[in-house]
Amino acid sequence: MEKYSIIPLVKLLADARKRADVSQDELGRQLGLAQSYISAIESGKRDLRLSSFVELARAVGLEVMVIPASMVPTVRALTGAGDAPARRSLYASDSDENEDDSNG
Prior knowledge:
6 helices, disordered C terminus
């Protein structure tokens, strides 16, 4: 089994905290944690329990969800993250696209 690094997830939390204009100290006070603990988490020096990760995510306006791997491209397309598949109208059928191609 491939070992997974939590660093990208921790970076996501730190970026969300900064976008929310919340300091490590403020976040720590809100969650009952020391600023040094938040710093250790954000620098990857401290591993998180899942419950702590969810609590931190919610405190900075994020929600943690588990989705089927097959849905990852769809979620990325909806959120504008990563390489999205080609965009098409929600109401376009395959035959509509074929007609557009033939009218070229």
